[in-house]
């Protein structure tokens, strides 16, 4: 006997996109913006879904919304289904015209001012009808977006073990000091020589911060973090003012007043290109191929 949707399921399916967007955003207005529809449409679809199911799915929390227990169970059971449906539709549509489509691409905060715009400009010249939705964030955030299916591709330094990734090259972390610092005349320094220094570092969730703390612990000391900030250009500016030293990759743009040194005891980090879909569209495959051809430009010598 042929299987068919129940009447309830058939009525629920068109409403799940609004439910999923509101569950992810935690805000009806933000969900409407994400879907490109009026806020009233999202609210109406969620109310219709609640009426069909007979349970409230959201509760008001401040200016936003939060899932109820029933809403959380529904989202846990449907988010992967909605993601796979979206991937299937995107892939099938893209086959009609492999030179068009949308690719959601993420890249880390340590890349961007020069290499990534140049890479994307060249890609756009070869595939002008492929649209790119770009996200720049630190590695942990990018990895989560890939896992959730909200990014198709992401460059991560280093790539996490649980995501399929192509290694593009390696990035070297260097010690950044002010030109007036006692070590500025050196070409290389051992990590153990820095135990009395003040460090300027990124937040604890960033891989560079974790790498700094791990390597310092192996060298026998805990780094003293005098300043903590997420923006790498600001870290370099603070270093230039003599407020501390920092462990960072080489900047793609010149920073006045800062000298960089090699550090013994700090390993290079792998640059990986992770893919977030089991069935990549031709557009995703095309950008993946283009990026891997840029391996030598993404790697820091």
UniProtKB/TrEMBL annotation:
Metal-binding listed as a keyword: no
Pfam entry (one): LysR_substrate
Keyword check for Transcription: yes
Origin: domain of life: Bacteria
InterPro entries assigned: LysR_HTH_N, LysR_subst-bd, WH-like_DNA-bd_sf, WH_DNA-bd_sf
Keywords: Activator, DNA-binding, Transcription, Transcription regulation
Stretches assigned to the HTH lysR-type domain: 15-68
Entry similarity comment: Belongs to the LysR transcriptional regulatory family.
Protein name as catalogued: LysR family transcriptional regulator
Lineage: Bacteria, Bacillati, Actinomycetota, Actinomycetes, Mycobacteriales
